[in-house]
UniProtKB/TrEMBL annotation, chains A, B:
GO biological process assignments: carbohydrate metabolic process; glycosaminoglycan metabolic process
Name the UniProt record assigns to this protein: Beta-hexosaminidase
Entry annotated with the keyword Glycoprotein: yes
UniProt cross-references to Gene3D superfamilies, sorted A to Z: Chitobiase/beta-hexosaminidase domain 2-like, Glycosidases
Domain of life (superkingdom): Eukaryota
EC numbers: 3.2.1.52
């Protein structure tokens, strides 16, 4: 080795865990993990029922690449389930996936502890998991103590995990397993170089979500099972399924069989009732609450394939006067048939969906006024004339949700652009700017953030629209370099750098429930889904868990790069975080 | 169906073939392809030797996911090989991959021919392939008639393919198979809806390449086999392997065993001599000539791990005064040890590599002058003082190539920035602008195009550099939104829209040998490789085959989207071309 390269020979402090715990005090001693490690659960309730549903079978079926299983999903996290999931996390995550962090160390450097000396190896062979009332202490500013946990791993191998809830166990086990690496010279040896470790942790935001569009292109339920697994590694806890849009209606609604049969792209591309239940149940097993959005009254064209009478301005040519993207078409607002349809739809969906989540998203974005000029019962394009109809439509839907005990979420336009009167329990999802987030909070509503300037993962890959060359190139409105409206591409650093609280007065911040990172589906299908999501969703997850405002440092790069390797080992085709040279040579790629 | 949607019910003219043939006259009758179709080869020479190497085994080994095989690659396309490859292309491409173009037609529309009436089904059961002197006729402006071919498929099922060469057979078979679709209701039925078909085709450019960086991150040889397969579908014929750079030296050089052992990221991340031979041989079987670049004298830091004495300014901190990216380090220029090393290197590589390609790329880009201020034998940073050394270094290397009968390629800087005197047979690869391309041509050299404004596939994913937060955020030079130097992302439309001939006077155009699309590897490894390459490399391939200047129309979108589905069926995890709704509804996504 020639001498100037020596500047990079300082052993890099790989700190492993993503998202970074609120309090994290790692040491630098080695402990080994026994493959036969025992779990002792203390203070948890006896399971209310003994499940015949095996998490092991379930998970193995998914990861052997089979389509969704018919097994009955779990409705509650029983002690038995919790034990299985905990063992599974550690076993698969450490001993099967076998992460050897070679590329985080200087080339040809000896970075692993020695295997030989069996005498002096200290093993962890027992993990005590206690359910306690977490003493928040330094974490008092954190909102959601029910997901809190603490890990105390002592130098002699004693491990005590304290959690406030069952979900805390899942988080603790994931943090714990991320402290371990497989040894490259042995298939049964795994170690942590970070002992002793003290961790106290709880999330900054209660609602830590991903909004996934399963409508614009076909996303099979089996893919979403993998997305849920990956989300749980980053401690995300909400999956918002944007389940229908103008382009297709993939969701089976038993009350209206024609809806998906005619509205899905193809009869083979339908999310059946069972698919949805399995995805929601799988989410539950991984601490991820899966809720649905039926976007209304805009973004509804696909309903017209089964029920043409409900839609105004369907698939107009040209479309751009009537919609933000093709095809145009919206639910009529002055139609009892539409009212009956939506009531039937919600009465079908809500009883099933509320088993898994007490949220339901009613949509409400990008409503086009011109479309109502073509609706003979409305015959107007003015906001003033449309608003009373929109208010009545929304009131009715919110009442239906209330009857089912479900909390509504709507897009910001309903409150900010249309100035509708909404009950105070309605959660407002903002997407355009932090000015709008501030406006929503000022109106007294709780809100979800996720600005398109940072958290729209679809941006920057180019427009999906075709130049209209029938009128000659000169008139084409799609011009080089063919960017989309929200370009540039949001690289992971930009995602991480998002600070939704920046211009929000302190007095309003408690109304912020959390945020969601978004993947709109115009240019995403099953083949490129992983690449579009990861590692960027994980970058957002640390903002949501730890809180915003942490600088984009090399340390963040290195931890996220480790996380990406864990995702890859789980079968997720994640995009890259950093060049191998930079990971191997700490400090070498700064500017 | 509600009436306005009817505007999209016109049967879309899916024209299937990518790249579009120069002359393509499809019909609209149906012909069926017999699974037992016979090939009659006429006019080809008796194979010079009978190979014991089975293409079938080879291809199947690759696609069952195994690592590279030890089988001996083919050195010439014998008649036997040609027959095997032809049968394989059709069999795998049509009957095994089974492309059913459902998403290119209106939902729930009957787009397939009826299977029932066995009597009236006309089958193609024999394909005559004749080697002839192609009458160029309308193709007279095309440069490379040796790859020309013609297909005449008559309505009665008679098929005659004429080709000027063995490579023409490969192209013809790929075009032919792209005319066929699998039938969704039968595993043995495949049809073309485009009969009768007349095709006359030859490439606009002789050199149609991809420059793939296998140095900055580990790209396994097995991945490159898949890249070659995919390239051959788009009729690309040159794979430029950027085989070493500052960050790592993955290439085994038997004359210098330490070079890769110490210079690769890890001993498990080495391209062995056999790996290289298999990749080059695999290329040969697919009509893709694989040639190497050893970039010199810049981009050579990794040599210093084995031979520290050869490198000036290695891995300096800060690096940015000494290199375009970290780590800094260049070959000394006034050193007989460097001369001896490079001679030994080329004498090791060239005899092996020239079996497969008579090109060798000597690099020469981004040479940093400051690095030579730290070289005690040079002790200068002025271009005037460095130039004579660079001229001598380059002369020597070009002489070595000449002794092996190999044509040199160098980056544009050698001619344009350093104004070196280069023999007229040296091919100049341009990358910065069409002004520079024009300048190179004016100096009388033949050139390769590939501007970073359109054909740098790595651009726009964000910088790989870390902010230097040790000096405080305010001083960090890496700022939001963390873009890279050549952002934005080059979406496939921008790739397709590239017209390298635009500002080039007609009288110089014959000096343009062709072009290459580039994937620099800072943020690409085995996991995201397919996504970074496809479908964008295919978009570039049509520019190279058909010639530039074709408008980015919906028709192009639809054909490229079909091509992408073929790539996906071959196991390539390609990015998306277009939303399914737009493909199903012709004209619906124009603006």
């Amino acid at each position: 080795m020639f001498s100037p390269l020596l500047i990079f020979l300082i052993i890099p402090l790989v700190r492993a865990v993503w998202p970074l715990p609120q309090i994290y005090e790692p040491g630098n001693s080695t402990l080994w993990l026994s493959p036969d490690v025992r779990f002792d659960f203390e203070g948890f309730e006896t399971p209310s029922y003994t499940s015949t549903f095996s998490v092991w079978d379930h998970v193995q079926r998914i990861f052997s690449g089979l389509q969704t299983t018919q097994a009955k999903p779990q409705k509650s996290l029983s002690l038995e389930t919790l034990q299985q999931v905990s063992i599974e996390r550690l076993n698969r995550g450490v001993f099967q996936e076998r992460f050897v962090p070679r590329k985080f160390h200087q080339r040809n450097s000896p970075f692993e502890p020695k295997l030989e000396d069996q005498q002096s190896k200290i093993y962890i062979d027992r993990i005590r998991i206690k359910k306690v009332s977490i003493q928040v202490g330094l974490l008092s500013q954190l909102r959601s103590t029910k997901e809190a946990y603490a890990i105390n791993m002592e130098a002699d191998g004693k491990v005590i995990i304290e959690t406030a809830s069952e979900n805390g166990v899942l988080h603790a086990m994931e943090t714990f397993r991320q402290l371990f690496y497989a040894h490259s010279s042995s298939s049964v040896d795994a170690y942590t170089p970070y002992a002793p470790v003290l961790i106290k942790d709880a999330p900054r935001f209660e609602h830590r979500g991903l909004n996934l569009d399963i409508s614009r292109n076909w996303i099979p339920p089996s893919d979403v099972l993998r997305v849920i697994e990956a989300m749980s590694l980053s401690k995300l806890n909400r999956l918002h399924l944007h389940a229908a849009d103008a382009q297709s209606w993939p969701l089976e609604i038993p009350a209206y069989p024609e809806l998906a049969l005619k509205g899905a792209y193809d009869p083979s591309q339908i999310w059946t009732k069972t698919d949805l239940e399995i995805v929601q149940g799988h989410g539950n097993l991984h601490g991820v609450e899966v809720f649905l959005e039926i976007d209304m009254p805009g973004h509804t064209t696909a309903i017209g394939h089964a029920f043409p009478g409900l839609i105004t301005a369907p698939a107009m040519d040209p479309w751009d006067f009537y919609a933000a993207e093709p095809p145009s078409g919206q639910l009529r607002l002055n139609s009892s048939a539409v009212g009956d349809f939506v009531l039937g739809l919600l009465n079908d969906l809500l009883p099933r969906s509320k088993t898994w989540s007490l949220y339901f998203h009613l949509g409400g974005d990008e409503l086009n006024r011109n479309a109502y000029g073509l609706d003979p019962t409305m015959n107007t394009t003015t906001a003033a004339a449309i608003k009373p109809h929109l208010q009545r439509f929304t009131d009715t839907n919110i009442d239906t949700l209330k009857a089912h005990g479900v909390t509504p979420i709507v897009w910001e336009e309903m409150l900010v652009d249309w100035n509708l009167t909404l009950p105070s329990n309605v959660l407002i999802q903002t997407w355009r700017s932090s000015e709008i987030l501030g406006e929503v909070l000022k109106k007294g509503h709780r809100a979800i953030f996720g600005s398109n300037s940072h958290w729209y993962l679809d941006c920057g890959k180019g427009t999906f629209l075709n130049p209209n060359t029938t009128e000659g190139d000169a008139k084409a409105r799609i011009k080089p370099p063919f960017l989309d409206y929200c370009a540039p591409f949001k690289n992971w650093r930009q995602v991480y750098d998002y600070n939704p609280l920046k211009d929000i007065p302190k007095k309003y911040q408690h109304q912020i429930v959390g945020g969601e990172v978004h993947l709109w589906g115009e240019l995403t299908d099953s083949v490129n889904l992983d690449n579009m999501l990861w590692p960027r969703v994980a970058a957002a997850a640390e903002v949501l868990w730890r809180g915003p405002g942490n600088p984009v440092s090399e340390d963040v790069t290195r931890r996220l790069a480790e996380m990406r390797e864990r995702l890859v080992l789980k079968g997720v085709k994640a995009d890259m975080v950093q060049m191998e040279w930079c990971l191997r040579n700490k400090g070498g790629c700064s500017l």
